[in-house]
Amino acid sequence: MVTILATANDAVADIGDGATVMIGGFGAAGQPVELIDALIECGASDLTVINNNAGNGDVGLARLIRERRVRKIVCSFPRQSDSWHFDEEYRSGRIELELVPQGNLAERIRAASAGIGGFYTPTGYGTPLAEGREVREIDGRWYLFEQPLHADFALVKAHIADRMGNVVYRKTARNFGPIMAAAAATSIIQVSTVVPVGQLDPESIVTPGIYVDRVVLVDAARLGEAATAGGRR
Amino acid sequence: MTMPASRRTGLTLEELAGAVAQDIPAGAYVNLGIGLPTMVANHLPPERGVVLHTENGMLGMGPAARGDDIDPDLINAGKVPVTEQPGASYFHHADSFAMMRGGHIDVCVLGAYQVSARGDLANWHTGRPDDIPAVGGAMDLAVGAKAVFVMMPLLTRDGGPKLVRECAYPLTAVRCVRRVYTDLAVFLIGPTGVTVRETFGIDLADLQQILGIPLHWD
Which residue in chain B is spatially nearest to A111 when comparing CA positions? Predict the structure, then answer.
C-alpha cells in the first residue's frame, strides 16, 4: 500500500546509519535531488550507495559524498569531469568503490527485483574486473557469475504518479528508476505531479504500484532548476 | 622522432568518421561510443535509416539539442542534451543493456587506447595507480554488439602504434574487435589475423614497419 507524502523529509526519515540505498539517475537525468537533500538533512551516514555515477557537480549525490555520508559506492562510471567530490574522497581513502560494468550493475539490480540468485554474463570476462571471480563455459562461450544487488531503500525520480503508486517517467530520466524501485525493500519515488487513480493509461504505466511504497510530490519548478544546475558535463 | 612525409597525409578525424559511416548498413541499429565515435553520426544520411541507441535508455536518438530544445531529461551516454527522432522509444537500463548483451545492436563504434592483433580491446582504464577507473557500458558493448568497430588514430602522440601484438592496458573484452578504422589504414581482424583493407597516404611497407605485427592484404 503506497503512502503519499507531502515532504521529502518525511519520506526518508527512517533511513538509518549503515543503510544500503539505491539512487536513480544517470548523471543529472533522473537524479532525485530533493530526496537526496532530505537524506542529507536526516543525518544518516555510513551509507552504501548504488548509482551509475559518483556525483556530478555540487548537488545531489555529489553533495551527499562531500558531506561524507557515503562509506561505499557501487557504480559503473565514477570518474567524470565534474566528479571532484568523489575524486577527493576516493584519493584520500575515505570512500570504498565497487566498480561494476554498467550492464552488470543494471542486471544485478533487476535480478534482485525478480528473486534471481545470480546469473552468468559474458560482460567482464577476461578483464581485471573478473579476477578471482567464478567463471563458467557455456556452449563454447565464457561467462562471469554475478550476484543480485539488494538494497534497503531506493530513491527514484519519476514524472507522474497516481494515488495507487503507479508511475510513469520522462524520456531518458527513466534509466535506473524502474529496476531500483522494484529491487529495494522500500521504494521512495519523487514526482512533480500526482494524479487521481484512473488518470494514467494502464497500458503506459512503467512501474506498477506494487513496487512503490512512498510517493513524494516535489515542486516542479525547483526540480527543473536543480536538474539544469547539475546538468553540465 | 622524425615523421616520414607519407605519414602526414592520412585522413582527418572528420574524414575518418565519414569512412566509418560509409560502412554502416542501411537500417542498422547502432551504438556510438563516447568521444571520437560520436562524430560518425554527422556522416549518416537520414535516408540510410540508421537508428541510434544510447545506453541510458533510448533508441532513435537525434542530433545534439540546441537552445530551446535542451531538455535535462533527454541526454546521451556522454550526458550531452540530445533530441528525439520520429519513432524513438525509451526503456530502462536493464532493457537497454539486454539489447547490447543480447546481440540486438548491429554495430557499435568505440574509441580505444589499444587493440591487439587478435581483436582484444583496451579502452576503459590506463591502469595507472593514481587513475580512478571508470568502465561505464564499454564492456557490455564490446561483448554484445554483432560487430564491434574501433575508431582511433593509429599512432599515439609519441608515435607508437595503438594496434599492437598484446594490449599493455587493462582489457575491456577479449577477441571482440572486427574492424579498426584509423587515419592511416582500415584493418579487418579475423581468425587468420590482421588484414589491411585500405591505406590512406602510407604504403604497406611503411605500415608494416610501424606496426611490427604480421599483416595480410589482398
Answer: B94
Query: What is the pLDDT at residue B185?
Result: 98
Question: Nearest-CA distance from A79 to chain B in Å?
Answer: 6
Would strands A3-5 and A214-217 be described as parallel, antiparallel, or unpaired?
Answer: parallel
CB contact under 8 A, B173 and A107: no
Whether the per-residue pLDDT at B1 is higher than 50: the answer is: no
- CA nearest A207 in B: which residue? B92
Whether residues A231 and B73 touch (CB distance < 8 A) is answered with: no
Q: What is the pLDDT of residue B130?
A: 87
Q: Which of A165, A220, A160 is nearest to A187 (CA)?
A: A165
Which of residues 129 through 188 in chain A touch B, CB cutoff 8 A? 129, 169-179
Which among B216, B145, B154, B138 is positioned nearest to B13, based on CA atoms? B154
Split into its structural domains, chain A has a count of 1
Determine the residue among A95, A125, A127 to mutate to test chain B binding: the one whose Cβ has the most chain B Cβ atoms within 10 Å. Answer: A127
C-alpha cell at B205: 611497407
Enter the CATH code of domain B5-213: 3.40.1080.10
What span, in angstroms and rounded, lies between the C-alpha atoms of B163 and B155?
A: 8
pLDDT of B15 > 80? The answer is: yes
Q: What is the sign, positive or negative, of the torsion defined by CA atoms of B147, A136, A77, B156? A: negative
Residue of B nearest to A100 (CA): B135
- Residue B5 — very low, low, confident or very high, per pLDDT cuts 50/70/90? very low
Q: Is the pLDDT at A158 greater than 70, yes or no?
A: yes
Cβ A103–B125 below 8 Å, yes or no?
A: no
Q: Show the domain range for A180.
A: 3-229
Above 80 in pLDDT, residue A213? yes
Tell me which chain B residues have a C-beta less than 8 angstroms from the C-beta of A99.
Answer: 133-135
Active site members of B: 55
CA A6 to chain B, closest CA, distance in angstroms equals 24
pLDDT digit string, tens, across residues B81-101? 999 999 999 999 999 999 999
DSSP for A84-135, written as a single string: HHHHHHHHTT-SEEEE--HHHHHHHHHHHHHT---EEESTTTTSGGGTTS-E
For residues B146 and B28, give the distance between their C-alpha atoms in angstroms, rounded to a whole number: 11
Give me the residue spans of the domains in chain B.
Answer: 5-213
Q: Find the CATH number of the domain harbouring A30.
A: 3.40.1080.10
Paired strand residues for B154: none
